[in-house]
Amino acid sequence: MGPTERPGAVMRAAYYEKQGPAHEVLRVGTVPVPRPGPDEVRVRVVVSGIHVGDVGKRRGFWGSTMTYPRVIPHGDGAGVIDAVGRHGDPGRIGERVWVYLAQSYRPFGTAAEYTVVPAAHAVALPDGIDLAQGALLGIAGITGHRAVFAAGPVSGRTVLVTAPLGGVGRAALAVARRGGATVIATVRHAEQVDAALRAGAHHVVNVREGDPVEQIRAIAPDGVDRIAETDLAGNAALDVEVLAYHGSIATYATSDAEAPLPYWPAAFKNLTVHFLSNDDFPEAANAAAAADLTAAAAAGDLRYPIAARFPLGRVADAQDATETAGAAGRIVLDI
Length: 335
Description:
alpha/beta; 15 strands; NADP; ADH-like_N
């Protein structure tokens, strides 16, 4: 039991008890303060990060259902450890951390004054990293890392990142470049070129200006080795054409779940497609991503623009803003 806990203690939290539109189902009230179980830590949340995946779970997208009768949303956040469970290290109490997968197969996320996570999912946050930045590293950052490294190291290879100014794309740019890759980003608007270069791309291709295949091949004549793909259905034909033999696509989203793939061109090149869903990455991959993302943030190589900050009481507005923010920046809740 940690130093702030008392029998019957309650906290403020956002929660929903059925899926649906934000302003119809999200509530803010008091719930019991959670206790950390064995090998868990409790974190006093300062900032809760929001990802479109959190919105999707609440709306019931992608076939998601409610496993628990009440869900406190948001998988990402940052704060200070205030209690540890049995077998935990009491020396961690008072440590600044960022957390991930807080609401993965669990009912209590970070949209609350306290959350409980496995000790390994509370990552030490260096003093030089703002808590709001730490709160945004989880879902997007780990997915971006996996999209780059699912097929192994990238040193000396060429990595193509689509949607480079989104949450996943920014992380993919940063870790690919730090991993020794030549990084190409594709954008759809001229004003995004400089932003993608600042975010870490070595080269940027505007797919609406000229032939994107010719532009990418001019940078990588033998083809690209890896693609971090945000829209497999929309970009599959282009991806297969610009990939090198034995290259791979790591995809975390698609505009059409039923769209066909160009099978024979992909087969003739012996390509691999990795389908990613961050709730179920191997724990070793999560740990490697957490270390690399923390280092990238500490070095200033990964920084998320924040489009808006909301108080906990306006969680419904915050989730609605997350659906429309896009490349403008991320949304956070100040707890």
